[in-house]
Amino acid sequence: MRGMKFVLAPVLLLLLQACTPSGLDAATGERVFKQCASCHQVGANARAGFGPQLNGLFGRRAGSTPDFVYSDAMKASGIVWDERSLAAFVRDPHKVVPETKMRFWGIGDENQIKALLAYLRTFQGVDSTAAPPATPTAP
After folding, report:
1. Contacts of 114 (CB under 8 A, 6+ apart)
2. d(Cα 79, Cα 74) in Å, to the nearest integer?
């Protein structure tokens, strides 16, 4: 019985590691995004709310979506969102764009930031300007 503990302990540790999110995957990023979701939307029907929609964010010029009124500082920032600029902004928005209207303290955990970026990347090709699909009607 005692020898069995030595065999099972490493197996149990491996199983626990497999269940722990790495912090780098989109599924973890979806959970991180929940703190952004009160202001931002992603997906096929995403629209601006308290913040701009975040579809197709990578390669987009900051302050450029037509359905959101950005701060003058954001429009003048000259930022084009990529991994580096977005990670810096999510880490400390007011350091990157001091006069931003965004009311968010930032995310300090690097794995959470990487996961969030992985999640946002899954919406890179999503067009939220397309009309939502029509709902079928009964004859």
Report:
1. 23, 24, 29, 87
2. 8
What is the pTM (predicted TM-score) of this model? 0.74
Q: How far apart are CA 120 and CA 16, in angstroms?
A: 27
Contacts (Cβ under 8 Å, ≥6 apart) of 2: none
In sign, the C-alpha dihedral spanning 108, 113, 114, 115 is positive
- Using one digit for the tens of pLDDT, what is the confidence trace for 82-119? 999 999 999 999 999 999 998 888 999 999 999 999 99
CATH superfamily, domain 22-121, is Cytochrome c-like domain (1.10.760.10)
**What is the distance between the alpha carbons of residues 50 and 40, in angstroms, rounded to a whole number?**
7
Over the chain, what is the mean pLDDT?
82
Q: How far is CA 45 from the centre of its chain?
A: 16
Q: Which tokens sit at 51?
A: 């913040």
d(CA 4, CA 84): 48
Tell me the three-class secondary structure of 22-41, residue by residue.
CCCCHHHHHHHHCCCCCCCC
